[in-house]
């Protein structure tokens, strides 16, 4: 059974994709797939209950998709082409298909564990990607190959531990880093009262009150992070800034962060 929050985020995703018929059809199939839903739910169970990490389940994966769609849409409105477009092997909508597919599967490897979960995510996602693409593009093997390859690069590169080269994969990397508001830390903080290594990630995420993604002044995309206390800067500097720095899309971003009521720090 999907939660109210999952349904709400799904509606936002489909609303943002309403002008892209093929991508909407593909994403609706992905969102309606019961096997994938079970995998996302179990990944979250392992992440929170077994490992004590933040949310890595269906809500997180959907929120990352929303972030990525926002970013890609802004780039498109600014006339900036994706890697598929630059290389003349695909359209902007193909890029959307690849990135959103990857977003909705990028943390499936948490079903197994944290270490190397990017590689495990690819292994678990591959049969599903093939299934969805064969239904969506039954007569276009070129699109299936290109979109699958790009989705795999995006999934395996989302932790900035592996060199990636496409704008699309770089967008997922940053979109993932932007999902760091206090909602992600709410459940693990409530469940675990015993101090342990890694708690700083939960406490720093809990300090993040709002992340805004919008058109920038100096660069196409501006990320503005608001926090309730300075512990949130750990999340910015150790997670988000690291991901932006590793991203092939870094040149398109501005990054500001600060405590509510205080002057923002400009990182980019």
Spatial sequence of strands, sheet with the most strands: 1-2-3-4
Broad CATH class:
Mainly Alpha
User: How would you spell out the order of helices and strands?
Assistant: HHHHHHHHHHHEEHEE
- Helix percentage: 55-70%
The total count of helices amounts to 12
Low-confidence segments, given as residue ranges, are 183-191
Number of β-strand runs: 4
Short description:
The protein has 268 residues and is of the alpha+beta class. The chain has twelve helices and four strands, in the order αααααααααααββαββ. The protein starts with a helix and ends with a strand.
Structural overview:
It is built from twelve helices and four strands. By secondary structure, it is α+β, with helices and mostly antiparallel strands. The protein has a single domain (4-266), classed as Catalytic domain of cyclic nucleotide phosphodiesterase 4b2b, CATH 1.10.1300. A four-stranded mixed beta sheet has the order 1-2-3-4. The termini are far apart. The model is unreliable at 183-191 (pLDDT under 50).
Topology:
Layout: H1 4-16, H2 21-32, H3 34-50, H4 58-77, H5 83-86, H6 92-103, H7 117-136, H8 141-156, H9 167-178, H10 183-191, H11 199-207, E1 208-215, E2 221-227, H12 232-246, E3 253-259, E4 265-266
Parallel strand pairs: 2-3
Antiparallel strand pairs: 1-2, 3-4
Helix pairs in contact: 1-4, 2-6, 2-7, 4-6, 4-9, 6-8, 6-9, 7-8, 8-9, 9-12, 10-11, 11-12
